[in-house]
Write a structure and sequence with these properties.
Chain B: InterPro entries: Globin-like_sf, Globin/Proto, Globin_bac-like_CS, Hemoglobin_trunc, Hemoglobin_trunc_I. The structure holds two protein chains of two kinds. Chain A is an alpha/beta fold. Chain A contains seven helices and 17 strands. Chain A has three domains: about 90 residues, Ubiquitin-like (UB roll); about 90 residues, Beta Barrel (Elongation Factor Tu (Ef-tu), domain 3); about 120 residues, Nucleotide-binding domain of ferredoxin-NADP reductase (FNR) module (Rossmann fold, 3-Layer(aba) Sandwich), CATH 3.40.50. In chain A, the strands form three sheets. Chain A has a six-stranded antiparallel beta sheet. Chain A has a six-stranded parallel beta sheet with strand order 15-14-13-12-16-17, with helices on both faces. In chain A, helix 7 links the parallel strand 16 and strand 17. The C terminus of chain A is likely disordered. Chain B has one domain: Globins (Globin-like, Orthogonal Bundle). The chains are: A alpha/beta, B mainly alpha.
Chain lengths: ~325, ~130
């Protein structure tokens, strides 16, 4: 049996159990959301013992060197012991600057951190409420802007989104942890065509990435496809149309599965992309939003000739409900 | 006894950079082939590509050494899912087509195909 020490108490692990599951099962509250090693909400630090390699996959070298690991992916071998502590030291206090509606189902949350957060547009952070509730959201803002901008999808019964929509007020305090993720623009090859595609609040990172690329002077064509089930699921449409008018190399293409119009194409996202960008050979692409859709688009674009090194994806994962908490499925 | 070792196909093709280019061509072929694509579907496409690059490096005589036991263990779950000679033949066909597409000379292609063929029994768990 393996065991883990947290705040002076030892907790036994069942065979093959993760540190996160073991601590939650025994009543210890640990921030967490996706439980799939992606969102990094459950980041912890080992103060003694050996962390399995798999628990540090995707972490920055500087975090690994300090013993940070993902509790959901940490399964210590039988007979080993691990002493752990939370990642509070990495969290930056922040306050809500503004809350506004982008559509009937998407809330724009602007946050100001007490100290600057270094990030790339398109990365994501974990938002941690005072009671430890954590959810991961993509950054739609640019680093030089004075506030962090998140697009929060309102989930039926969602713990974080419900609180943000109904109870939270400007001035309320939270903590921010991160950033994480490799879905961002890297300057270089300014003439290379760029393809950005996403569904729902997958627009958040793309909105950051496209403005980042334009600010960096990207001169090649930049296509942004935003898909939703119905026109009500689209948002920031007038801002994006205005951006396209200012920058002739930027083309904004909203699409819906039903209820298309003169300005909004109707059809599946991959079909709309293929119709306008039939030969994306040598392009760079970013795909964000609904998990299965992102994975299927990536495969189609790879088969169409995009190189894997030019394909950046952020497949949103639902947060996993715990016993005492209702689901925030499909957060971000 | 000391014999000047003949250059491997891997070296003749250009080593690691050549494998990096070949793996995308090869991966596209197996993913586009519905008879075998389900064995290659992976949420993590980079990990899958890395495995295939290791495979290409091995069959061209490069610095990757799998034992017969590794090949058996690695493919055992796929054998349980029905991996058989027809799938092996399809993958071998895509390997050959990839090398030909990249302009590899026929005698070298034949050499690679011989190494690939020698893995058949271990891959299929016989």
């Amino acid at each position: 049996m393996a065991k883990v020490k947290h705040e002076s108490d030892w907790y036994p692990l069942e065979s093959g159990e993760s540190v996160l599951d073991a601590l939650l099962r025994q009543g210890v509250s640990i921030p967490n959301a996706c439980r799939a090693g992606a969102c990094q909400s459950c980041l912890m630090r080992a103060v003694a013992g050996t962390v399995p390699e798999a628990a540090q996959v995707g972490l920055k070298d500087t975090l690994r060197a300090q013993g940070y690991f993902l509790a959901c992916a940490c399964r210590p071998p039988e007979g080993t012991q691990l002493e752990v502590t939370g990642a509070e030291a990495l969290r930056i206090p922040a306050r809500i600057q503004a809350l506004s509606s982008l559509s009937t189902s998407v809330l724009r949350v602007r946050l100001v951190t007490d100290s600057p957060l270094a990030y790339h547009a398109g990365q994501y952070i974990s938002l941690v409420r005072e009671d430890g509730l954590a959810r991961s959201y993509s950054l739609a803002s640019l680093p030089h802007e004075d506030a962090l901008e998140l697009h929060v999808r309102l989930q039926p019964g969602g713990a974080m989104s419900g609180w943000l929509a109904q109870d939270a007020r400007p001035g309320d305090r939270l903590q921010v942890q991160g950033p994480a993720g490799s879905c961002f623009y890297v300057p270089g090859r300014p003439e290379q065509p760029l393809l950005l595609a996403g569904t729902g609040t997958g627009l958040a990172p793309l909105y950051g990435i496209v403005r980042d690329a334009l600010a960096a002077g990207h001169s090649g064509p930049i296509w942004l496809f935003h898909g939703a089930r119905t026109p009500e699921g689209l948002y920031l449409t007038s801002e994006l149309r205005a951006l396209a008018e200012q920058h002739p190399q930027f083309r904004y293409r909203p699409g819906v599965l039903e209820g298309g119009s003169r300005d909004v194409a109707e059809g599946a996202l991959d079909v709309l992309i293929r119709a306008e960008c039939p030969k994306p050979l040598g392009w760079r692409a970013w795909l964000c939003g609904d998990g299965p859709l992102v994975l299927s688009l990536r495969k189609k674009l790879f088969l169409a000739g995009l190189s894997l090194k030019d394909l950046h994806t952020d497949a949103f994962l639902p947060s996993v409900p715990t016993g005492q908490r209702s689901s925030d499925a499909g957060a971000r | 006894m000391s014999v000047m070792a003949e250059k491997s196909v891997y070296e003749q093709l250009g080593g690691e950079p050549a494998m990096a280019a070949a793996v995308e061509v090869f991966y596209r072929k197996v993913l586009a082939d519905e008879h075998i694509s389900h064995f290659f579907e992976d949420v993590d496409m980079e990990r899958q590509a890395a495995k295939q690059k290791a495979f290409l490096t091995m069959v061209t005589g490069g610095p990757v050494h799998y034992s017969g036991k590794d090949m058996r263990a690695g493919h055992a779950p796929l054998v349980k899912r029905g991996l058989n000679d027809s799938h092996f033949d399809a993958v071998a066909g895509h390997l050959k087509a990839t090398l030909e597409e990249l302009g590899v000379a026929a005698p070298l292609v034949a050499k690679v195909m011989t190494i690939a063929e020698s893995a058949r029994a271990d891959v299929l768990g016989r």
